[in-house]
């Protein structure tokens, strides 16, 4: 029991401290989804429940006994909805990565999304202390939580992009597009255009899928910024981690066979 | 223990701590005093009344469901208060046997100490008035529902109908040809027929019969249609 748990802890620490190396090791092993997903759900639960708890603490409403019952319920709701959102995000990232010439499977995308949530445990701890301490003493913890939240956001984005880059053998630019920029644009399109935006996105993805199939059939790795020989763009997952480290930067992310 | 394991353990620990804190924090919140709770109940009551109109308290230990018929002495019934949470109030100038005012109720009743206060949580109140009877002072309060029928009113009598949501349809049978009816409708229509003159202002219709110095009828409706017709003395 202790073995897998320690291994899980090691992986988490490894991903947070040196993500590229840790993801490259994971790329050659079975994907570890259980612990990071459980922790991400736990973080979501705590975020939801802490929000309600902070309202009760800050505003001493006469309804506080009622609201305190709602706190764990909101936490469960937040955990479930965030896990669903993570699955949707993983599917979207997987689709984008595939269209950009990457190869990989969706469970790895989900594990990357789950790992990218983990840095937010740091600000969450500070916010939890703020809620527990209450009063003026909470201000310091809130300020620390705010700073840590910014750090965690950048850290999480970096983990997401590096993870997608490694698991899908994409260069960092394409991984940034697949993991962050395109999902953000998708989100904005759906927010501003509603159901028409959704139809537009589906049509755009269908077209992109069609053209990527066509270009692959023609031997050109569509949507990569490099010119590659005919027949390239497949079998890139066979590149050894050592080779990747020898050629870092935009040209070294994979997508072509040596 | 390696650094990676320590960092992993830190993350796991922070998550567990945060979950524990989120569950424990509400218990640390200051408990409201009885006064605060009562204040909030009053505030909620006012909000409910503003939205739904007067709502009769229901479901208390004194409430019970069924069907009742009460006979009231005409002298006592001249001043009457009828309160219904959800339901209807109907007034009839025929159907009463003898000289008594007969009140039929069907639904869930909230018992009160006074018989001239008819309180019904849910259901219908039918009032059968004997010939020649007229109200001196009548108050009808309904949260959601209908108020309809014939309303006889004494020369200097007053009647007040307060309805949150629903329709008011009354045939006014005043015992004098002087009086005023005021229909205030938040959202909906107000109509007055058979009066000598009417004047309209936003949300209010004022209809006058004769000099206007006799009876008064006030209809206050939150949402719905109000129609008052003078059917003659």
Q: What is the topological layout?
A:
The complex is a heterodimer of chains A (258) and B (233).
Chain A: H1 2-17, H2 19-27, H3 34-58, H4 64-99, H5 106-117, H6 121-133, H7 137-167, H8 172-217, H9 241-246
Helix pairs in contact in A: 1-2, 2-7, 3-4, 3-5, 3-6, 4-5, 4-8, 5-7, 6-7, 7-8
Chain B: H1 3-28, H2 34-52, E1 63-72, H3 74-77, E2 79-92, E3 101-110, E4 117-128, E5 135-174, E6 179-193, E7 197-201, E8 204-209, E9 215-230
Parallel strand pairs in B: 2-4, 2-5, 5-9, 6-9
Antiparallel strand pairs in B: 1-3, 3-4, 6-8, 7-8
Give an account of the 3D structure.
The complex is a heterodimer of chains A (258) and B (233). With 258 residues, chain A is mostly helical. Helix content of chain A is 75%, strand content 0%. The termini of chain A are far apart. In chain A, 40% of the residues are buried. Mean pLDDT of chain A is 77; it is low at 220-258. Chain B is 21% helix and 55% strand. With 233 residues, chain B is an alpha/beta fold. The longest helix of chain B has 26 residues, at 3-28. A 9-stranded mixed β-sheet of chain B has the order 1-3-4-2-5-9-6-8-7. The chains are: A mainly alpha (258), B alpha/beta (233). Chain A binds chain B through residues 6, 8-14, 16-17, 39, 42-43, 45-46, 48-50, 52-54, 56-57, 60-65, 67-68, 71-72, 75, 118, 121-122, 124-125, 127-129, 131-132, 134, and chain B through 2-9, 11-12, 14-19, 21-32, 36-37, 39-40.
